[in-house]
Amino acid sequence: MPNQESDAPDTIDAFFARLAERSPGFPKRLKQCADFVAANPDRVAVSTVAELSAEAGVQPSAFMRFCQELGFSGFSQMQRLFRSDYSRKWPDYATRIGSLRDHGSDSPAALLAEFVEVGRLSLENLLTSVETEALNEAVAMLAKAETIHLVGFRRAFPVTSYLAYAFEKMDIPAMLHTGIAGLGLEYAIRPGDAVLAVTFAPYTERTLEIAEAGRARGAGLVAITDYVTSPLVQLGATTLNVAEPDVGAFRALSGSLSLAISLAVSVGAARENGKNRK
Prior knowledge:
By secondary structure, this protein is of the alpha/beta class. It folds into three domains: 5-88, Winged helix-like DNA-binding domain superfamily/Winged helix DNA-binding domain (Arc Repressor Mutant, subunit A), CATH 1.10.10.10; 93-128; 129-277, Glucose-6-phosphate isomerase like protein, domain 1 (Rossmann fold). The chain is 55% helix and 10% strand. The chain contains 13 helices and seven strands. A five-stranded parallel β-sheet has the order 2-1-3-4-5, with helices on both faces. Strand 1, helix 10 and strand 2 form a beta-alpha-beta unit. Helix 2 (28-39) packs across helix 4, helix 4 crosses helix 5 and helix 10 (157-169) packs parallel to helix 13. The longest helix is centred in the last third of the chain and has 24 residues, at 254-277. It is globular and about 55 Å long. Residues 13-89 form the HTH rpiR-type domain. Keywords: DNA-binding, Transcription, Transcription regulation. Residues 138-275 form the SIS domain. InterPro entries: Homeodomain-like_sf, HTH_RpiR, RpiR-like, RpiR-like_SIS, SIS_dom, SIS_dom_sf, WH-like_DNA-bd_sf.
């Protein structure tokens, strides 16, 4: 079991890269820890191990083992990393939203204020959660694809349906996989195509199935998802991460839709530039 300080990640980016690499092989309790930290990284810097363990639904000993599996000597060392590095990159939206709720959200105006605030914070978050290199790679892959297959169900469907609209307006060949009447369109995926899969926790099994089928058929794979523990990461997707804060049990799509329009316009421009160079 790795537990030497020299083996510990020294940046948040390195931490999440290691988490994505190792979490698929974790037993159930450690996977719970991984999923909780991926979903609530802002909490690590300000919470005790007992508090984090309770919220993750595991014993403190399991959380300590989770820290050690990632190369830390214990929780304190991991927390120091988050306190020194993470606060510079990500907004602590939980505290701000908590203060809004303390002032009451019974009125429509107060609820609107909450959604405006989480939307703003989601956009701030997007600037640090999406890696420039991954974004450039995704645009290049989609720009050269023969057909772009858009896959996203449930909460992700507005994102893929918007992308289908945008690509159609730019004369970019794209197919929206809707799942209507249980009809699958995986047969249409060909080598040289690309699958753009969108799913957020809890991840939609049908989206994962189509993404995996596309990989097996030789298509490229781009993912818009939330955490480094997303199953799409394990499929080798070029991943664009966007995590949306929630208001109660409801999540807006401010960050996801902003990423989608940026991606669509960038792909359209790249394809046009490619035509002009021919």
